């Protein structure tokens, strides 16, 4: 499991408040509010929508327009590479089955290998947008945690 700096800060504050190791580890197993496990899929979708300048309705549609197919494929590709989620979970998020996710992933891998459709540039751009979103989300979490800690002090 990957923990962010904010998660470690949260663990430290829980220890300061008198919780023991068992309680802190159970807290993270049950609640695990880490951006790396629960919210990254949503941020990947947001980054893809931002890059392609499309709506979520278009993204979720059954349309086979090339730019929409590429957008969904990049979502599958990044979700498989950047998260620990299963293809079933990834597919459910966009109303597709696991086989569609696997096929879209393979298509993007092939396009990357052959350097077609400017896929590499699109993935790099979406990854940059995603990193900005993650940084902003971590800053927001960090600010909230610091507020909670100063209130309890």
Q: How would you describe the overall organization of this protein?
A:
This protein has 153 residues and is mostly helical. Helix content is 75%, strand content 0%. The radius of gyration is 18 Å and the shape is elongated.
Concise description?
The chain has helices at 5-16, 21-30, 40-52, 56-60, 66-82, 87-93, 98-114, 119-152. By secondary structure, the chain is mainly α. The longest helix has 34 residues, at 119-152.
Largest sheet: none
Class by helix and strand content? mainly alpha
Q: What's the overall geometry?
A: elongated
Count the beta strands.
0
**Ends: how far apart?**
30 Å
Mean pLDDT: 82
The residue fraction in helices comes out at over 70%
Order of helices and strands: HHHHHHHH
Strand content: under 5%
Instruction: Please work out how many helical segments DSSP would assign.
Output: 8
What is the radius of gyration?
18 Å
pLDDT < 50 runs, ≥5 residues:
none
Fill in the keyword field for this structure:
153 residues; mainly alpha; 8 helices
Task: Set down the secondary structure blueprint.
Blueprint: H1 5-16, H2 21-30, H3 40-52, H4 56-60, H5 66-82, H6 87-93, H7 98-114, H8 119-152
Helix pairs in contact: 1-8, 3-5, 3-8, 5-7, 6-7
């Amino acid at each position: 499991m990957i923990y962010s700096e904010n998660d470690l800060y949260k663990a430290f504050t829980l220890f300061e408040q008198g919780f023991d190791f068992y309680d802190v580890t159970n807290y993270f197993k049950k609640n695990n509010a880490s951006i790396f496990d629960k919210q990254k899929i949503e941020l990947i979708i947001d980054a893809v929508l931002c890059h392609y300048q499309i709506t979520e309705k278009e993204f979720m549609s059954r349309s086979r327009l090339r730019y929409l197919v590429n957008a969904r494929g990049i979502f599958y590709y990044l979700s498989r590479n950047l998260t620990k989620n299963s293809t079933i979970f990834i597919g459910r998020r966009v109303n597709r089955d696991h086989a569609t996710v696997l096929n879209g992933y393979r298509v993007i891998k092939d396009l990357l290998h052959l350097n077609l459709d400017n896929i590499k540039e699109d993935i790099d751009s979406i990854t940059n947008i995603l990193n900005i979103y993650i940084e902003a989300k971590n800053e927001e979490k960090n600010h909230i945690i610091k507020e909670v800690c100063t209130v309890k002090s």
